[in-house]
Amino acid sequence: MSDSPHLVVQREGHVVTLILNRPEVCNALGVQMLVRLADAWTRINEDPDIRVAILTGAGGNFCSGSDLKAMASGYGDDEWTRRIHAEKDLHWKALLRGFRVVKPLIAAVEGVAVAGGTELLQGTDIRIAGESAKLGLTEARWGLFPLGGSTVRLRRQIPYTQAMELLLTGATLPAREALRMGLIGRVVPDGQALLEARRVAERIAENGPLAVQAIKRSVQETEGLPEEEALRRELEIGWPILSTEDAKEGPRAFVEKRKPSFKGR
Asked: Which family, according to the similarity comment (predicted)?
């Protein structure tokens, strides 16, 4: 397994699946994985034929966060480490800290999803977890800081007091509790998270890609704005979509009682 890429990329139609691939360490985030993730986000954004992305982990776990053993012993001198040092903020891009994937991003979570694993989740749009999944931000337990954006993003995604309890105690919580507080959106039987994520991804991929991307952009860019300003921004983003070829194809397909054939134009 040590010779395998630390991130496996699979493509099926308009859906790409990224698999964190260090199962022997619960998919801990090493430098190779971070570099490959950063490159994958760029490819997803730039390839117009990719409409949806899924992020999951190999071996029954999502991600256990940073590789603390490598952090304690010091990283080696290889091509991956050199890239991390050479390209400013590459590691933050990998963690989706301030970098936005413009296509819908679905997390399929099984097993452990703690520390950097839960930080990565906060950069995804739809989150599906297996019944036995465990989530949490454990950095404070080891004297560390969750620099993947959690002190900013978590409070915006779940209630303040729940966010603070997670951040300050470093406790882990089961999938059902994470569902109750809104950190994830759906719980499925163990082993079914990726299958369900693929079902959701296929439904999204059948929709007009320009409309889908504009909807995601509008939701993100209007967050926190006063309503009047937010509605102006929504109009700026959404109105041009109605002049696209896809916007003509959709109603035409409805009238002709057939499935639309969207081209992303």
From this structure: Belongs to the enoyl-CoA hydratase/isomerase family.
Known active-site residue 87: no
Residues 6 or more apart from 207 whose CB is under 8 A from it? 262
Catalytic pick among 24, 87, 119, 177: 119
* The pair of three-digit structure tokens given for residue 201, joined into one six-digit string: 């991804």
- Alpha-carbon span 125 to 144, nearest angstrom: 26
Distance CA 18, CA 85 (A): 24
**With a threshold of 0.90, does the pTM exceed it?**
yes
- 56 and 19 Cβ atoms separated by less than 8 Å: yes
* CA 243 to chain CA mean position, Å: 30
Catalytic residue status for 223: no
Give Cβ neighbours of residue 133 (< 8 Å, ≥ 6 apart). Answer: 62, 109, 110, 111, 112, 113, 174, 175, 178, 184, 187, 193
Average pLDDT over residues 249-260: 94
**111 DSSP 8-state letter:** S
Catalytic residue of the set 139, 196, 228, 256 = 139
Closest CA to 123 of 145, 152, 144, 143: 152
User: Does 1 have pLDDT greater than 90?
Assistant: no
Helices 160-169, 150-157: inter-axial angle, 10-degree rounding? 140
